[in-house]
Amino acid sequence: MDAADMGKDLERVLITEEELQAKIKELAGRIDEDYAGGELLIVGVLKGAVMVMADLARALHLPVQMDWMAVSSYGAGTKTSGVVRVLKDLDTDIAGRHVLVVEDIIDSGLTLSWLVHNLKSRNPASVEICAALRKPDAVKVALDVKYIGFDIPNEFVIGYGLDYAERYRNLPFIGTLAPHVYGAS
Ligand SMILES: O=P(O)(O)OC[C@H]1O[C@H](OP(=O)(O)OP(=O)(O)O)[C@H](O)[C@@H]1O
Ligand code: HPA
Ligand SMILES: [Mg+2]
Description:
Blueprint: H1 3-6, E1 10-15, H2 17-34, E2 40-46, H3 50-59, E3 64-72, E4 85-88, E5 98-106, H4 110-120, E6 126-134, E7 147-151, E8 157-158, E9 174-177
Parallel strand pairs: 2-3, 2-5, 5-6, 6-7
Antiparallel strand pairs: 1-9, 3-4, 8-9
Helix pairs in contact: 2-3
The chain binds 1-O-pyrophosphono-5-O-phosphono-alpha-D-ribofuranose (PRP), hypoxanthine and magnesium ion.
Residues 45-48, 72-74, 80, 103-111, 163 line the site of 1-O-pyrophosphono-5-O-phosphono-alpha-D-ribofuranose (PRP).
């Protein structure tokens, strides 16, 4: 799917595919350096993080293992419910491991704040965060984020894993939705 296929649903492209891919390579370079000589477990947060996980994992030169958690706080809407539900837990015991949580977006920050707290209680060697996007004007909880792709305006975005009612995740770029799609005037 590309911008032309989206027709009237797309308001504008915020971050192009090329910009995203260049940023992932840059973040991977930093992660390679920071964890050099060690082994890293990258944990993707389903479903939004699938694209950034797949691209980041292939850009890293470190030996990595991949695991996944599924949590959900948005349901089908554009606002967080504030309640994080675990739909799938890790398969791996992370005690003593270096863990990097990979996310598509930090919006209110509630999902990652809850998740990092949860993971730290399992006694890993370290837990850090890598997120493709962050909305500084929407963040409600302080979060220590080591690797961040782009700070973006406080608008609902789609693409590169991010959905609206499960659609648009497969767009290779980040865009904003036309208001008519979600019922705003
Ligand atoms: O910072 P927050 O306000 O908590 O929002 C960020 C989270 O919300 C979205 O996931 P969602 O719960 O919609 O599930 P999904 O990844 O399956 O789309 C997104 O992928 C992040 O995981
Ligand atoms: O802006 C967003 N778009 C899609 N999903 C999201 N989950 C949190 N924020 C967003
Ligand atoms: Mg998510």
